[in-house]
Amino acid sequence: MRRIALNVTAAAAFGLLASSALAADKSVEMLHFWTSGGEAEGVRALKDALAAKGIEWKDAAVAGGTGANAYQVLRSRLAAGTPPSGAQMHIQETLAWANQGLLRDLSPLAEKDGWRKEILPAIQSNYEVDGKWVAVPVTMHRSNWLWYNSALLMKVGAEPPKSWDEFNAIADKLKAAGITPLALGGQNWQYGDLLESVIVAKGGADFYRKIVAGDLEAIKSDTMISVFDQIAKLRGYVDANSPGRDWNLATAMVINGEAAFQIMGDWAKAEFALAGKKPGIDYGCVASPGTDKDFIWLVDNFAFFNLNDKAAEEAQNTLAETVLDPKVQVDFAIKKGSIPVIDNVDATRLDACGQKSYEDRKNAATTNGVVPSIFHNAALPAAQTGVYLDVVSEFFVTPSMTSKDAVEAIVTGLGQL
Ligand code: GAL
């Protein structure tokens, strides 16, 4: 916190600090990566709710799923001493910035508003560093979803697959009928999302926990080999234009009937909704194959920077209070495809997929099936996640690489950290 405060003071002395001007006109400048059509709808819901309280949301949006580009911009702005009021970030970034003392302590607000009673108990420990609340959770997503185009499945007489064997059989049928089975954006995190779903499917939640814990026996196991064998099979089910494609363009392929399936977190649902598609009619949402009882979660947080300005702090506090308002929690989740981070809400307002997610999380909690996402920075620090990202993306685009090679590359990569 001190470094930013010093930088901010220095910048102000040179007349460079825009933030105090922002604060004076009651606004918050938020750096985020919600730039797809559906994501922008979510931002609009927050903006409107905040505007109703007299605070303007100023956009500092940086495109790129999972926020890798946005985090880069944030690092530059912090280094330059010109932080935004706040930023969207996942759990691991929140912890990393907080450990450097860069985030505002929200404890007084948390205490005043009873966050401990409101926020889902299962995620609370991720927000406390040295006994201080370092961010406010905004919304919860699930990464292990399978989205499908109902008409295309009907065309080949298929039901949504419950296992990877079923998926492969349907994908072969689709391919034979000239239909691209899997819409995929060839970007490293999108390969990563496939990987975490397949790990849970093949090994179960406890096996996944062992992988997250760096258990070498689990990493080198036959189960992990079978995980990569399945990822290798998926290479044959994507179209030639997959490399580099953004996730929302892959979702559009399922929406438009150019591909049958996509494995993607529930932010994809916002794109279906924006296109006027109805769950259960035009498209379907089921857990990714073999993960029906499991819930791979991730949370988007807002963390705030110390701008040394009372009005700026008040605007930040108002935003934090706004996002935790039970009505705003649901309004935002409806637009964004996510579920609320508090329990005291009217979940019946969510659509069918949202309600399924809400129920699935509760049920998975009773069977110990709730696990944090690796590739959306809930489970592991950036360095470890980076090893998995490198290996799975190289593996996907290198057919000569065997599953054993992939597992060995993970062991080597982790060993070098
Ligand atoms: C996730 C993020 C979601 C969603 C998605 C695609 O990492 O938590 O809110 O936006 O990326 O951009």
TrEMBL record:
Part of a binding-protein-dependent transport system for a sugar. PANTHER family: ARABINOSE-BINDING PROTEIN-RELATED, BINDING PROTEIN COMPONENT OF ABC SUGAR TRANSPORTER-RELATED. It is found in: Periplasm. GO terms for cellular component: periplasmic space. The keyword Transport applies. It comes from the Bacteria. InterPro entries: Bact_solute-bd_prot1, SBP. Belongs to the bacterial solute-binding protein 1 family. This is Probable sugar-binding periplasmic protein. Keywords: Periplasm, Signal, Sugar transport, Transport. Residues 1-23 form the signal peptide.
